[in-house]
Design brief:
single chain, alpha/beta, Rossmann fold, 8 strands
């Protein structure tokens, strides 16, 4: 079945949604990260569309979706409301499987652990995107553990996440994207991230410069005032071993927050959706089927 395009309005923010596959098949929602849009899931979708009703959307600030100018409009609560608006429009009342990458995963933890969608999510596959509340508790538990190596781990993660601090600076990230970072991005993905088929996107400049508001609106508030967040649905954690940004140590102790946790590791860089789509599609499919049988 050919892809269908939809527009979903969430309190004045218009979200672009793409659906593929038979509406009679199990629904699967895929959420992208930064600085991407829904097309980052193209290869994975091709491998799943014969078995699932695949739902993808451009998160606010990305792709064809609206790009609010105010930083506070990118808070986690608004992102969770966007996901609710999408599924309530496209698959009203139906349970669904959820998979997300990078910032898509970070924001999806909000719905997995809290709110009206919590009981509708059948399974959650998280790739390179920890819950910020879980990260905050991990940092608090490790930062003073010098002898046990906890301090070293925290410092190492802060070094890997240097860009998070840079994104807090006003104007600088936006200026870099306007100055031509969007044109350089495919070369960066090819040379640094092993994405051999990286191509220029006309959305890249705006995806980059508006997406930094995700970091500004959420990182400091969540790290300073974390809340306990418990997941009830089965969670599959996919950890790329060569991730240059999200170290595997950030997922230590995740079993405290997830009762039904599965973990898979893969020898791949951060954009594993593009470099090893077969493995990712296979694991999402297998995990969803396992959850459906439970």
């Amino acid at each position: 079945m050919a892809a269908q395009q939809h527009w979903v309005n969430n309190n004045g923010v218009h979200l672009y949604v793409c659906t593929e596959g038979s509406p009679a098949a199990p629904p699967l929602v895929l959420v992208h990260g930064y600085p991407d849009n829904h097309t980052v899931w193209d290869k994975v979708t091709e491998l799943l569309v014969d078995r699932y009703f695949v739902i993808r959307y451009d998160v606010r600030g990305a792709g064809r979706s609206d790009k609010p100018a105010r930083t506070r409009d990118y808070r986690m609560s608004h992102l969770a409301d966007d996901l609710s608006a999408v599924v309530n429009k496209v698959i009203p009342g139906q349970p669904f499987h959820l998979a997300a990458h990078d910032w898509g995963s970070i924001q999806s933890w909000e719905s997995v652990t809290h709110g009206p969608l919590k009981t509708r999510i059948l399974s959650y596959t998280s790739i390179s995107g920890p819950c910020l509340d879980h990260v905050a508790f991990w940092m608090r538990n490790n930062v003073t553990r010098v002898r046990e190596g906890g301090t070293r781990k925290v410092v190492g993660q802060l070094a890997s996440s240097w860009y998070v601090a840079m994104f807090q600076l006003p104007l600088l990230p936006e200026t870099l994207w306007r100055a031509g970072l969007d044109r350089m991005w495919p070369d960066y993905l090819r040379k640094r991230e092993q994405v051999s088929e990286a191509n220029f996107s006309r959305f890249q400049r705006d995806d980059g410069r508006y997406g930094v508001k995700l970091y500004r609106a959420n990182f400091l508030p969540r790290l300073l005032r974390p809340e306990p967040r418990q997941a009830d649905c089965p969670v599959q954690l996919i950890v790329p071993k060569a991730d240059n940004y999200v170290r595997e140590q950030l997922f230590e102790g995740l079993e405290k927050w997830v009762g039904k946790l599965s973990r898979r590791e893969i020898d791949a860089p951060h954009w594993v959706l593009l470099t090893q789509p077969d493995a990712i599609a296979g694991w999402i499919d297998g995990f969803a089927k396992q959850a459906a049988r439970a």
